[in-house]
Design a protein that fits this description.
Elements: H1 31-38, H2 40-43, H3 56-63, H4 67-76, H5 92-103
Helix pairs in contact: 1-5
Length: 105
């Protein structure tokens, strides 16, 4: 049986980094690139009946239900669309920006 004869205090070897945030700030949120990463697979191809960018009549029909309903569907998922549209790092405000982006293209 060996005894510990000395003990060295551990040193902090983790590099100092910027704090990790859950989502981008409104000033830095990039709806276009987030759309490409999280939404395009369906909303860019029409997969599973997702409304496409530029389908004005379809988006008008969706928006006629009210933004509260639209956002509840985005946040909770609807039909084949998963909750938050697979953007797990997006805040609710980020998701609203994505909806605005898709509607206004």
């Amino acid at each position: 049986k060996e005894e510990i004869s000395s003990f060295e205090e551990p040193t902090n070897t983790v590099a100092q980094t910027e704090p990790i945030t859950e989502h981008q700030t409104p000033e830095t949120f990039d709806a276009a690139s987030t759309y490409q990463m999280s939404c395009f697979a369906c909303h860019g191809t029409g997969a599973a009946g997702a409304p496409l960018l530029g389908e004005v009549e379809v988006w008008e029909e969706i928006l006629a239900k009210g933004m509260d309903v639209v956002m509840a569907n985005v946040i909770n998922g609807l039909n084949a669309m998963p909750a938050r549209g697979l953007c797990v790092s997006c805040s609710d405000d980020d998701l609203k920006s994505l909806v605005d982006y898709m509607v206004n293209q």
